[in-house]
């Protein structure tokens, strides 16, 4: 039965995206001297949601992690942990999402593993992925490369994924108006890097910890300060309303198809034009600026000016506002 599950159901559905030979290791061709690797595990609840499921998130999250490092994603591994009793129809649905996302990202699944655990030992299905990509550009993206005058760009609505998943879990009624932003963004990132080159300092996907965590990590790594403008942050009214109801801060909510880029001032317009060419990034906007630490409360500081003109500090979040959502 295990053999039938792996070679029939799993390998059968993954089809052309799967190039494993059922050996203990995959033998891969790498077209460059430098590679990027990342790994992640996915425990999404519920497994299926608006605009995606655990399969799409697994591929998109891994591919996006490779792409924001400047790499061209090439290969994925896929490990599946199934709880006894998980419906085969649901497994097939997840695998079809894995296949479709892999096709969209132009990556191949080269190895994998499948385990079935006893009822109650897993929450339906868990996925683990490892991604490999190749670094082909002559420059390196780094959170340590920020300079005073650089602009901070966000590519989409903040917090939508978290609010959608929470609404589904708790029956809040927002899930029809606020969908998850889950998306493969490697093609978007490649276009921006092709156009702006080393004018892009760094890119990060705004997942766990939200934008507030990302910009704090940037500021600390580069020993600079970052100033944000709350009035231009892309936040859907329904998302803001739901966050207020739940007592959480949108600045720290997870996304699954949203990027934070820091670019040189002279490349800002070119970067926005490249982003706006993609439907996933139609809301891309400049939301802040990098300044010298001495000019804004010290190195590693993030401050935000509200609509009323008040300036507040965006602290690095300690602990978690919510259970893991991606």
UniProtKB/TrEMBL annotation:
Gene3D superfamilies linked: PurM-like C-terminal domain, PurM-like, N-terminal domain
Domain PurM-like C-terminal residue range list: 147-294
Family annotation (Pfam families): AIRS, AIRS_C
GO BP of this protein: protein maturation
Residue span(s) of domain PurM-like N-terminal: 23-134
Family of this protein: Belongs to the HypE family.
Official protein name in the record: Hydrogenase expression/formation protein
Taxonomic path: Bacteria, Bacillati, Actinomycetota, Actinomycetes, Kitasatosporales
